[in-house]
């Protein structure tokens, strides 16, 4: 899959507040889908759908042991978004530095 497509999946996954809450919880350590559902005001089936989107984006990895599906963070998924954001930040910092230089010349 192309980098741009992977990046689109990551930002799509993070674009939903429920999925961001799930990522926040999973970032503290592995957790079962039923534990993820407990504090949320949505059904277990809806949580499973959100987890699937996160898994497809590469942000989360799941494992099934018996009847329990455990979710873990996949740090490489976040690094893709982090790299993209850093690239934009660097570009704007260079532009602002150049503007500062131009203003200082006067």
Largest sheet: 3 strands, antiparallel
Mean pLDDT: 91
Helix/strand order, N-terminal first = HHEHHEEH
Oligomer: single chain
Tally of strands: 3
Separation, N- and C-terminal Cα atoms: 49 Å
Low-confidence stretches: none
CATH topology grouping: Arc Repressor Mutant, subunit A
- Assign the CATH superfamily: Winged helix-like DNA-binding domain superfamily/Winged helix DNA-binding domain
Spatial ordering of strands, largest sheet: 1-3-2
Structural class: alpha+beta
CATH architecture: Orthogonal Bundle
Give the count of structural domains. Answer: 1
Rg from Cα: 19 Å
Question: Any idea what the shape is?
Answer: elongated
Number of helices: 5
Q: What's the CATH C level?
A: Mainly Alpha
Strand proportion, as a percent range, falls in 5-15%
Helix content: 55-70%
Explain this structure to me?
By secondary structure, the chain is α+β, with helices and mostly antiparallel strands. The chain has a single domain (3-105), classed as Arc Repressor Mutant, subunit A. Helices cover 68% and strands 13% of the residues. The protein has five helices and three strands; from the N terminus they run H-H-E-H-H-E-E-H. It has helices at residues 3-14, 17-26, 33-37, 44-57, 75-105, and strands at residues 31-32, 60-65, 68-73. A three-stranded antiparallel beta sheet has the order 1-3-2. A hairpin with a 2-residue loop joins strand 2 (60-65) and strand 3. Helix 1 runs antiparallel to helix 4 (44-57). The protein is elongated, with a radius of gyration of 19 Å.
């Amino acid at each position: 899959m192309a980098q741009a497509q992977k990046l689109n999946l990551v930002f799509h996954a993070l674009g939903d507040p429920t999925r961001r809450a799930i990522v926040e919880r999973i970032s503290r350590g592995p957790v079962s889908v039923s534990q993820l559902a407990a504090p949320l005001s949505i059904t277990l089936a809806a949580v499973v759908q959100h987890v699937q989107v996160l898994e497809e984006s590469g942000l989360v990895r799941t494992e099934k042991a018996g009847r329990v599906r455990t979710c873990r963070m996949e740090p490489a998924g976040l690094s893709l978004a982090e790299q993209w954001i850093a690239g934009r930040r660097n570009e704007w910092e260079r532009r602002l530095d150049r503007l500062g230089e131009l203003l200082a010349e006067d």
